[in-house]
Design goal:
The protein is an alpha+beta fold. The protein has 6 helices and 16 strands. Its main location: other.
C-alpha cells in the first residue's frame, strides 16, 4: 500500500484525478514562496531530514582522527496538512445523476495548506525551531519609509539592492510585500508618468509578489538564487485517503516542505 493509502478507498481512478486537479489548481492560486524560490525535490515522503548549510562556513574539520562537517545542521522536514470530508450521499448522487462531483472542500483544504506553507516560508515556527525569511537571525533589517508618499518605495528597494550588492549577493532578486503595500504602490509617480509599482518591479526584473500571510506593512527583499536559499520538498502537495467515518470519506491534503536559508545576508527585511 502506498503512503497516500488511496488503494484503501472506494473512489475511482477518474475521481482521484479530479481531486488531484482541484488540489493543484487551488494551491497554485495562493502559493507565493514557490514562485521565487528554487525547488529542491520532490525527494519523496521517505526523506525525513535534510542538511542546511551555512554557505560561507561549511567545511570539513579533522580532530582526533575524525572528520566532521562544520557549518552544517540536519533538520526534520515538517508535514503541512489540512483535512476534508466528502459525503457518501453526495458521491452517490453525483454518480447516479452523471454530474461532476463537488470538490470545493478539497479546494478549501488545498488553499489552507498553501497558506500554511507560505506562513512557514515567511515566518518559520520559533517554537519548533524553524526559521523564516522575516524571522531568520542575521538577516538585514532596514527602516521602511511611507510607501504611499513620494518615491519612498523605489528608494527603499534600491537601497536594499545596494546592500545586497555590497555584501556580494548577486544574481536574481525578488520582492514579496503585504497586500496593503502592494496597493500603496498602485499610483502614478509625479513627473514620470509611471506607476510606482512598475518602477519598483523593474528593479527586481518583475519578480514582485504579494502574499496575504505577510499581514500589513511588511516587505522582504531576497537574493533568491539557489546558492542563497531554496525550498526543499519531500512529498509534494497531494490528497491522501484517511478513513470512512459515519459512511463519509475523510481525506488529508498534505506535503512535507522546508525553507533552507544558506546565506542570511541575502535577506533584507523592511519594517
Amino acid at each position: 500500500m502506498s503512503y497516500l493509502s488511496r488503494e484503501s478507498s472506494p473512489l475511482s481512478e477518474a475521481l482521484w484525478k479530479q481531486i488531484d486537479s482541484a488540489v493543484v489548481k487551488a494551491a497554485r492560486n495562493i502559493l507565493t514562496g514557490r514562485r521565487f524560490l528554487h525547488i529542491f525535490g520532490p525527494l519523496g515522503i521517505g526523506t525525513q531530514n535534510i542538511a542546511i548549510d551555512d554557505a560561507d562556513a561549511v567545511k570539513e574539520v579533522e580532530k582526533d582522527g575524525l572528520i566532521t562537517t562544520q557549518g552544517r545542521k540536519f533538520v526534520e522536514i515538517p508535514t503541512v496538512y489540512d483535512d476534508f470530508t466528502l459525503l457518501a450521499k453526495d458521491l452517490e448522487s453525483a454518480k447516479k445523476a452523471g454530474f461532476p462531483t463537488d470538490l470545493s472542500q478539497a479546494e478549501k483544504a488545498a488553499e489552507a495548506c498553501a497558506l500554511k506553507e507560505d506562513q512557514l516560508i515567511f515566518f518559520g515556527n520559533a517554537e519548533l525551531g524553524y526559521e523564516g525569511l522575516l524571522t531568520a537571525p542575521g538577516a538585514k533589517k532596514m527602516a521602511k519609509k511611507d510607501w504611499s508618499a513620494d518615491e519612498n518605495a523605489f528608494t527603499d528597494i534600491a537601497a536594499g539592492i545596494a546592500y545586497l550588492v555590497e555584501n556580494s549577493i548577486y544574481g536574481t532578486y525578488a520582492l514579496a510585500v503585504s497586500p496593503d503595500l502592494y496597493m500603496q504602490m498602485q499610483r502614478l509617480q509625479p513627473g514620470t508618468g509611471l506607476l510606482e509599482i512598475d518602477r519598483v518591479a523593474k528593479l527586481v526584473n518583475g519578480r514582485l509578489y504579494q502574499s496575504s500571510v505577510l499581514g500589513r506593512g511588511k516587505a522582504v527583499l531576497v537574493g533568491s538564487d539557489e546558492k542563497n536559499m531554496d525550498l526543499a520538498i519531500g512529498q509534494d502537495m497531494a490528497a491522501a485517503y484517511l478513513e470512512q467515518k459515519d459512511l463519509n470519506h475523510v481525506f488529508r491534503v498534505l506535503e512535507t516542505v522546508l525553507l533552507r536559508i544558506k546565506r542570511k545576508q541575502a535577506i533584507v527585511i523592511f519594517e
